[in-house]
Amino acid sequence: MESQANRRHLASAINDETVQAKLCAVALATVTQGKDFDDTKLFLCPACGYIEPDQPPATCPVCATRPEEFVQV
């Protein structure tokens, strides 16, 4: 039982790091294109961590989450 809890915790930590890496990649791409990052809106899929700049997609290309479920970060 402890092993399952540890696996879930590790999977959650890996997911958090993946989302953080995606956010950093979007930030770097925005800055290197000469854009002001403060003007960029990012939308995060709460189900899989997919990130879309400017506006949420029609559906998440990874997990098909609806656009109204995306969270602006």
Brief summary:
The protein has 73 residues and is of the alpha+beta class. The protein has one domain.
Write the layout of secondary structure elements.
Elements: H1 2-32, E1 42-44, E2 51-53, E3 71-72
Antiparallel strand pairs: 1-2, 1-3
Which short descriptors sum up this protein?
single chain; 3 strands; 1 helix; alpha+beta; flat; 3-stranded antiparallel β-sheet; 73 residues; 11% strand
Strand content: 5-15%
Looking across the biggest beta sheet, what order are the strands in? Answer: 2-1-3
Topology, number of strands? 3
Average pLDDT over all residues: 82
In total, how many domains does the architecture comprise? 1
Measured between the Cα atoms of the first and last residue, the distance is 35 Å
Structural class: alpha+beta
Largest sheet: 3 strands, antiparallel
Query: What series of H and E elements makes up the topology?
Result: HEEE
Question: What is the 3D form?
Answer: flat
Considering DSSP H and I runs of 4 or more, what fraction of the residues is helical?
40-55%
